[in-house]
Amino acid sequence: MNKRPIEIFGLVGLAWAALIVSLLAADQVAGLFLKKDTGRITYKSAGGQGGQELYLGDSLLGYKLKPGAVVRVNDTRDNSTIYDAVYSIDEYGRRFTPAAKKQPGKNSILFFGCSFTFGEGVNDDQTLPYYAGEMLKDYTPVNFGVCGYGPQQMLLQLENDGISGRGKGGKAVLIYLCIGHHINRAVGSMRIICNWGNDNLPCYALSPAGELSYKGNFLNGRPFLSAVYLRLGKTHLGQYLLQKNLDIPFWFTDKQYALFAKLIDESRKVFYEKFKSDDFYVVLFPSRESTDRLVPFLQKAGIKYIDYRTHREFLTDEYLMKDHHPNPAAYKKLAAMITGDLEKLKAK
């Protein structure tokens, strides 16, 4: 009898056993280093009565802002207040921009993105769209940013008339404020799935021919991998990775960057169809997660971008709140940079 296959199976079994034991040991060790979460974000109505929600569920977007909501948001961590701000949402379900009420300009500048665009932690008159509107007198700013959104929601907003009420006539400019973490949202990484993205973020896939296909949310569009991420996120090891801002996958493939760029490119095409404008710009904002590998894909698609990756001052305490969101000074500086560069681009 040939013992070679038996020996091979035995070695494979030992390898798997060693791997399982190692993972169990790593899980127990990770549990020793987990920190107790002392952060708390509370949402209350501006009148102080409480109970008014900021978000509504949405079958396409996952969630959206509640039209007409006025909510006071307080973030405390380690018994220290990070921010205390009031968010006002207009009748169309967008962050209210006070500048829009001051003799609206004949043109529109539309801002898309996540909490950095929305203005997490700052008041209505301290956001990027507000400051940009103050600096561009001929343009009415419209804030389509929503906390936690990725490029897939921008595409769905544009495709499904989520841009109602932006104003009629005149020229339109679109600014997509891009941070490195947006690719995690586009591909549904473990950190996203274990937090808010499992059934709250739209899921897209890229075919071998380079075509986009909408799959619903990550829970039903990619069930197996999402289930693996959710299970891992419940272990000590997974929780330790999440606390240390480590994510799975640890790096992204060219195909995943191609998916990200395709979502932006399709958004650009829909924007052109609706507004007959090619003033569509991706603003690469410096962040902890790099966007360096995204640039060649933007260039290949012919997507115009404004590059602020080297402005690392935005990552210092002068311009960051303790939750790593920009403060009002950062938004004012960024608005001046964007409006200045837009003027230069128009002059060419």
Description of the structure:
By secondary structure, this protein is α/β, with parallel strands linked by helices. It has a domain at 107-347: Rossmann fold (3-Layer(aba) Sandwich), CATH 3.40.50. It is built from 12 helices and 12 strands. The protein has helices at 4-32, 115-118, 128-135, 151-159, 182-187, 190-197, 218-221, 223-233, 236-243, 254-275, 295-301, 328-347; strands spanning 40-45, 55-58, 62-65, 70-77, 80-88, 107-112, 139-143, 172-178, 202-206, 212-217, 280-284, 305-307. It has a 5-stranded parallel beta sheet. It has a 3-stranded antiparallel beta sheet with strand order 1-4-5, with no helix packed on it. Helix 1 crosses helix 9 (236-243) and helix 6 crosses helix 8. The radius of gyration is 22 Å and the shape is globular. Residues 16-24 and 38-51 have low confidence and may be disordered.
